[in-house]
Amino acid sequence: MRIPSLALVFSTLALASAAYAEEGMWTFNDFPAQKTKAAYGFEPTPAWLDHVRLSSVRLARGCSGSFVSASGLVLTNHHCVRECLDQLSTAKDDFVTRGFSAKAGPDERQCPAMEINQLLEISDVTARLSKVTSGLADKAQNDARKAEIARIEKECATSDQLRCDVVTLFNGGRYDLYKYRRYQDVRLAFAPEAAIAHFGGDPDNFNFPRFCLDMALVRVYDGGKPAVTPEHLSFASTSPKAGDLTFTSGHPGTTRRLKTISELEYLRDVDLPATISRYAELRGMLTEFGERGKEQRRISLADLLGVENALKGLTGRHQALVDKRFFATKQSEEKTFRAKLEADAAKRAAVVPAFAAIETSMTKLAELRAELNGKEGHRGFGSRSLAAAVSLVRWASEKDKPNAERLPEYGDAKVPALKAQVLAKAPVYPELEIAELTFGLTKLREALGPGDPFVKKVLGQASPRQKATELIRGTKLRELSDRTRLFDGGQKAIDSSKDPLILLAKAIDADGRAVRKKYEDEIEAVVKKNSEVLAKARFETLGAGTYPDATFTLRLSYGTVKGFPHRGQAVEPITTVAGLFDRATGAEPFELPGSWIRAKSKVSPETPMNVATTNDIIGGNSGSPLIDRNGALIGLVFDGNIYSLGGDFGFDPELNRTVAVESAAILQALKNVYEARRLVAEIEGAAAGS
């Protein structure tokens, strides 16, 4: 679908105050309960907030979810478990196409590479980090900060069942320690067919009205048994209506609402155009691959859907930044802030230079971007097997270093996640690996040039396709036993390995480390230090009563059920099952699966299907529960409308909408379409016991 101009989206922002009533992705330890009381007559209590926090979960691969029973049952999106479905499927039994429903507990299938986190505690560690970084220059400060973060996380993560992350908030104005309960035994309980989960496909993506059942159920296990989860959400007994107060509890990934103009200009002029171009080409490659045959389509479809979704989102973000009205509002905000700083002699001397320092860093980053992405950000050049080799080589050289001196992703607190990723029991498809690695190596040569020493080191005399074929056909890393041996064997095992992917990963490791060090010392350190200076000045000058940018940590937003104007027409906020059947054409992507056609008479046409609200979300909120003031689940967030795409940089309550599957549709489907009586009884038992 063509994304329309976003000028209208942000036309009202020039007259806006610092934050709208519904705007904000608030941390649970700083939620503005008085604001909801003033606006809606409801003040969430500490007990209400604790219940919602402990009922919410994070899927480590970029999604959210919630416990919906006392036995570890988790509700999330179908597209959030798509990888699991792919990994469990075979050419003869495709769970993506036909769906999956475990008739009994033993039938639930373990997802090879899924981790779920439950947030247990939040604590402020700002003072501790400020103490060790005070008075240090850029690089020294950055190194000291990273070392102290590694120490804090290791002290916190006292067992493999705990995950601890120090989270940077307000661009360094505050640091919080998030302590999670980690679940790595996650099993698939239910998923509908892709045809209904993604009904409307790419044409309907980021649009409304919608008619999707983008939901799935997984279960976390502890010691081989369903985990005990006393804090969970019950399904609401009544459906939401226009004007009702709503909350979303989830993990928004990244926003850049507090970035400086020079940082936004780098995104607008350098990073986003290049990334969009790459994704557009990758989409073409994956589309062609899927057209080779039925099996090729099956094994590549998840990657294609992910690329298409990312491409539309990135395009929307770029259109927001090239919109003159919107960008003028961002410039005006920074100009107002700088004027306040200039009026204070002390801040003029100590703070204002931070803008120039960050701007200089963005110029350096633009120059370093291709080398940084090519040598260090490649993540295996698109190959899962090469990415595993890179991790194995890095882990062998990092594991024996003192924890505080390791690369952050190899610190003690991160090892369980690293191990689960590298040793996942997931299928690897050589044909797809060759195609994706060929693409990655081609783009490397294109970006750095065929004469670049690094490119020559990677390719030698071979073409990208020849090299990719040689590497993938020659490796044994598809075998879990080989990866396990190398992971456990350390440097000795790596040094003795003759696997071509290990040899390549060893050959390029020093190059990656060198460009990473240059970036961290000359760019990252400067940006972090000066962003922290600006953040502290912002608190002092404008006040601290606002929310931090998204960081893929648990946040709570509030809003209402509400439609929006689109191209001169009023869009109603709630769709129904009747609308689903009316929209079905019998042709992809508007083709209903047979289960729904057969069950048409069993599902009430008046059942609410999808709902739009003014909640403030971004990518990462997929799978977030939509909750009413009673703390009951009324929906499952799966998307935003077209106007939400600029939400990375700003928020407009008149147009920006969250889109969710209504809870009544979920129950109706489980009961009357799929006859998943065991799961329905568990969910309704949770509601009865709440």
Overview of the molecule:
The chain is α+β, with helices and mostly antiparallel strands and 690 residues long. The protein has two domains: 7-115 and 184-256 and 548-689, Thrombin, subunit H (Beta Barrel); 297-306 and 337-542, no CATH class. Helices cover 48% and strands 15% of the residues. It has 25 helices and 21 strands. The strands form three sheets. Strands 2, 3, 4, 5, 6, 7, 8, 9, 10, 11 and 12 form an eleven-stranded antiparallel β-sheet that branches. It has an eight-stranded antiparallel β-sheet with strand order 1-14-13-19-20-21-18-17. A two-stranded antiparallel sheet has the order 15-16. A hairpin with a 2-residue loop joins strand 11 and strand 12. Helix 10 runs antiparallel to helix 11 and helix 14 packs antiparallel against helix 21 (500-542).
Q: Can you lay out the helices and strands and say which pair or pack?
A:
Layout: H1 7-10, E1 26-27, H2 33-40, H3 46-55, E2 56-59, E3 63-67, E4 73-76, H4 82-88, H5 95-98, E5 100-101, E6 109-110, E7 116-124, H6 126-133, H7 138-156, E8 162-169, E9 174-183, E10 186-191, H8 194-197, H9 201-204, E11 216-222, E12 225-226, E13 245-250, H10 261-290, H11 294-322, H12 324-342, H13 345-350, H14 353-375, H15 384-398, H16 415-422, H17 430-448, H18 453-459, H19 464-474, H20 480-496, H21 500-542, E14 555-560, E15 564-566, E16 569-571, E17 574-576, H22 577-583, H23 594-598, E18 608-613, E19 625-627, E20 633-640, E21 658-662, H24 663-673, H25 677-689
Helix pairs in contact: 6-7, 7-21, 10-11, 10-14, 10-17, 14-21, 15-20, 15-21, 17-18, 17-19
